Fold this sequence. Notes:
This protein is mainly alpha-helical. It is built from 3 helices and 2 strands; from the N terminus they run E-E-H-H-H. It has a two-stranded antiparallel sheet. The relative contact order is 0.14.
Amino acid sequence: MNTPLVTVDPQIMSGEPVFAGTRVPVRNLVEYLRANHSLEDFLEGFPGVTRAQATAYLEESSAAYLGRLQPVAAAA
């Protein structure tokens, strides 16, 4: 059985998606990176989140986003 990467529980952070086993919203990782902070900065600020969790979240998010993109027809 796979352990979930992200959990949503109304009793934890009002149901905001968090890294499993923590109270750290996944939104925090995205905000850190958008503010030009490094992954290392995020991990130092939120030691309850492992590097494996953070990178897996980024990989899964990227794959989900890329899977929704439609190919652009080449110009003739």
